[in-house]
User: Fold this.
Amino acid sequence: MTTSTLPRLSATEQLILELLVEHGELFGLAMVEASNGRLKRGTVYVTLGRMEEKGYLDSRQEPLPPGATGLPRRLYSPTGHALQVLAAWRAAARVMAGQLSTTEA
Amino acid sequence: MRPLPAHALLRWTARTFGDDVATRVFEPLVADWQRDVTAAGSRPGRLGRQLRGAAALLRCLCAVGVQAARPEPGDWPRLARSAVTGAVFMLLGNALLLAPFVGWWMDRGWTFAPLALDLVPTTMAFAWPFALVPAVIRLAAAATDGRAVWRGRLYAVGVAIATVTVMAGLHTWAVPAANRDFRQRLTPALPSTPRAINPPALRLAALGSMAATSPNETRRRIATTFIWPAALVCLGWRVGRHRRSAHAGALVLWWMLPFAIAVAFQPVSTPFNALHPMGVTETPEFVAAAVWIAIALALRPGGAASPVVAQ
Assistant:
């Protein structure tokens, strides 16, 4: 397997997955609010679209409340594949941190 | 936002970027924006939410636009790819800056359209930083992929100096000369001489001498010649130190600081200002600055269009 085919997770994608794991299904603006300024409203939707493309997220449209107008919001949830990648990413980070502390000692 | 403009906006994004991007990116943004505005209790609250939503939309458009404008990696040499991308951004910048003049030409008949060539140096001066977007992307990639910090730092300084040299040259000589020519050619076609127009007999050397006697113009020239480059070089040295601010720092470096200094030193009325065909020199700067802020935010590491994040 070449490095280009390995599943990769950027810091923003990791943050989004962690928020979804913590809060459950969320829509874009709720993620921005829950991230305490780490996600930006102008770019989060591009990242969410890319994560859907990569198979990290599933989305569905929220049913409109009675009498509501406008477009239905899109709710996002992590896929099983994304959760596996996130777990692997965290494990790799722990191993690297352990190795670094051993080297420094 | 009412449903009708939202649907029109989504149709436009679908035509421009494709159905998939419109559905995945812009539709959720607009839906959240609408719901956010509806949930506001007061009128000022709604206005604030409208503005925040509009800013997010602008930033999102820039992020998606930059991604769409980036050429596909192929077999082209890197330099050629950068040159083509730079030219595309330069043309977009020029088109943006010339757009306000279209209505003006239409009012006076299209025979004046060739006179636009005289305005190109002006717009080139302001559009030049647009051509540097590929360089910014390269700089950020170098700064964030672990390569030597010195390299990114020197790159930033080099590009900043080149930018300032080109902009200062255009602003100081090409723009006044072209604008003077534009006004002189326009004068016979107008019913009365425009206010504040320079006498046609006044040549560039005489204008230079008039400018030299104007304290405001002297301050502006000092700023253009010394303060911009010095400030840009100092900031350029700092860009490489902070990986996470490389994109934003570089773009601020190239545009916002000169813009701020220019505004601070902009005289109300000088011989050079009076040469501007519209009599208003700030409009293109504000438009370009707004675009640059949006691009800078989109391009910063961790931003949507960042090559580091896009995998």
Summary: Chain A has one domain: 8-104. Chain A is about 55% helix and 10% strand. Chain A touches chain B through 30 residues (CB under 8 Å).
